[in-house]
Each structure stands twice: as C-alpha cells, then as structure tokens.
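Subject: sequence -> structure tokens, single chain

Hey, anyone have a minute? Need the predicted structure for the following. Not urgent.
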Amino acid sequence: MDNSSGIQASLAGRYALALFELARDEKKIEAVGQSLAGLKQALAESNELAELTTSPLIGREDKARAIGAVAEQMGLDPLTRNFLGVLAQNGRLSKLGQVIRAFNLLAASHRGEITAEVTSARPLDDDQVAQIKQHLRTRMGRDIAVDLNVDPTILGGMVVKIGSQMIDSSIRTKLNTLAHAMKG
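Reply:
Had a minute. Here:
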C-alpha cells in the first residue's frame, strides 16, 4: 500500500517524505526511526523542548543552535540531526510532531505493516503493547506498528485508529453516551 501521495498533501508530510527517502537511500530507516522515537518521547516529557519547537519568540538561528545541541546530547543519528537543522532554518520546527508521525507511517508501509494509533489515559507497559499488537494482528491479518499516545482526558480505556477505522472504548466516550441517553 503506497500512502506517500496522501502524506505529500501536507507540509509536514512533504518533509517526512524527504527524510524517509534520504534514510531509505542511505539504508538508515531504522536509525532515523529510533532517533525520531527518542525525540517524540523527549517532546512529550520536556515542556522546554516542546516550547523551543513551537515558540514564535525564538528566532530561527537560535532554534537551530538549540535543537542542534539537543540532538547532539541525545545522540541522534547524523541524518536526523541535519534534518532538524533544516526544519529550524526553514521555520518549520513546529511541525516536528506531524513529521515524526508521517515518517512512522512511511516506515511502517515500507516494512509491509499498517499503523495503529493507540491513545490511552496513561502510559502502557511493554506487555500491554505486545497484547494490543497481537490482538490487532489477529483482527487485521497483517503486522501492526503501534503509535502510542497518552491523553489523560479520555479518563480510561483506549482509542485505537487504523486508517479510517476507529475503536473508541474510552470512559469519556461512554460517559458522554450515557449523559446523552439520559437527556433523552
């Protein structure tokens, strides 16, 4: 399944596609993927890093120097470090989360997998992730790559999106449904 044309429709998608093609040509898809996974986690855990990427008050040059230092300290691969510099210089660092998501979709497609976006109220441990992957693999009949997100506002349960399909077993949705039914 080639979904690169859909991804190219967005600005972040075009950057992700460019990074993916470079990584593929240099046979570094896994290294870049690991660097981006570490970066995604750092963005989720560090308010300062998230602010660096999105703040309009920080100039492009300062962002480029700062993100270069962060990339160096994190030990990101050279291709990802250079890519982050390009994003900063072009004023597109705020699109980093979308670029990471699009890159992961491209990499999963390249491996013959489909990607499931799984949102839970709190972080899942490795056993839970393995169970989810196994269940989805059985249901879909293909290998599954899982993109994990944490959103405490769903209160509990999970929301799983695979392409245009969505399985919403969150407590928030169940409570909203119950409240709507009670208004009747």
